[in-house]
Amino acid sequence: QIKPTYEPLNEVTVLEVVKALDFFEEAALSHLHVKEIGDGNLNLVFHIEDQASKKALIVKQALPYAKVVGESWPLTLDRARIESEALLKEAESVPHLVPKVYYSDRTLAVTVMEDLSDHLILRKGFIDGHTYPALAEDIGTFTAKTAFYSSDFYLHPFEKKEQVKRFSNPELCKITEDLVFTDPFFNHDTNDYPAELQSEVDKIWNDTELLREVSKLRFSFLSKAEILLHGDLHTGSIFVKENSTKVIDPEFAFYGPAGFDIAHFIANLALNYLSQNAHAKEPFNRESIQLYLLQTIEKSWDTFTETFTQLWNEKSTDPYAHVDGVLENFLQKTFQQAIGFAGCEIIRRTIGLAHVADLDTIQQKDVELFYKKKALELGSKLIKNQRNITNITELTDWIRGA
Ligand code: ADP
Ligand code: MG
Ligand code: MG
Ligand code: MG
């Protein structure tokens, strides 16, 4: 144990953690370069490098509070344990898609992991107009494998229930319950949107059919312990390089409904799709990137179903696995719920507490408002039409139509 009790680390004390590991050469320890690179709302992220050998690692530490709308709320340090354990669990089935964990410390709420500074955060890559050929297959594989191997279709029921306990994450789930499934659908002070959107927002708050569907999605999120989820799979939790994808930041991991993660990925691609033309700096349009985004949505879902189906056929322990229609029903229900979850994510990223840079950094106010209205319309339509959209190309048609 490096410290007897928790204390927030700084660029000096973080070296005590690093020195207790066997990562850097002895001779490098006296002149390591340390920089805090996190955005500081929930966690500290230190980049520590030996500039001679270029070897580096990351120390991520949870803070005992979250800064929200200028205020500090207490927030459990247990999320650092969840993050470390989720990264290790994910590495059992998709080691190439997550950062390696070198060390973790529950007292300090610390995860020491592989440095991925040669990668870029996907949201930024998309806004800057880049595309990534391996992304769709990687995210489809990530979501399918982590889903199947954590589910009752594979695990012994005793083991599954142990895992549900281990990944019990009530405080972070409560944040999602409130910020994704509740606050944006009512007049709540955490909401954040320009006054010009009030009539669109009123439409959402007064749409009984919509609210009924959101209440069902929220109840699923609360009660369905189907698979181990990442829990926060937006494009800010994905690091990319030309042919490499790494999923980071699983502090929201918990057992929940199977469509939740891929829905968040799809929703964030849809939000980026809407904003593409507003970010084009030269007078060229971004139709080819928009086409890529829709193809990526399609291919990630297709990879999810193909990979899940293959694992099911080869490895399912479910006594009904061979019965015609059982897998198809599961996939169909998962798809329809994913459409609903994606709709909620699109709405909350537009009018809720935490926005996305894709829409918020649009320079011209009227253009920003135009696309935010489109986002609210699309989100509402997806939530209300979950059962009318029967396959992934119908979904991308709806996004194109927005
Ligand atoms: P938070 O939970 O506070 O959002 P993240 O895990 O998302 O923390 O990390 C915040 C930022 O720190 C990332 O956007 C990225 O810039 C940097 N970062 C996090 N993990 C790594 C890593 N393994 N390698 C390099 N940079 C990282
Ligand atoms: Mg952050
Ligand atoms: Mg993050
Ligand atoms: Mg996080």
What does this entry look like structurally?
The chain is of the alpha+beta class and 402 residues long. The chain folds into 2 domains: 101 residues, 2-Layer Sandwich (Phosphorylase Kinase, domain 1); 282 residues, Alpha-Beta Complex (Aminoglycoside 3'-phosphotransferase, Chain: A, domain 2). The protein has a 5-stranded antiparallel β-sheet with strand order 1-2-3-7-6. A 3-stranded antiparallel β-sheet has the order 8-10-11. Helix 9 packs antiparallel against helix 10. The radius of gyration is 21 Å and the shape is globular. 41% of the residues are buried. The mean pLDDT is 96. Bound molecules: adenosine-5'-diphosphate (ADP) and magnesium ion (MG) (3 copies). The site of adenosine-5'-diphosphate has 18 residues, from strand 2, strand 3 and strand 7. It catalyses: 5-(methylsulfanyl)-D-ribose + ATP = 5-(methylsulfanyl)-alpha-D-ribose 1-phosphate + ADP + H(+). Keywords: Amino-acid biosynthesis, ATP-binding, Kinase, Methionine biosynthesis, Nucleotide-binding, Transferase. InterPro entries: Aminoglycoside_PTrfase (IPR002575), Kinase-like_dom_sf (IPR011009), Methylthioribose_kinase (IPR009212). It holds the Pfam family APH. Catalyzes the phosphorylation of methylthioribose into methylthioribose-1-phosphate.
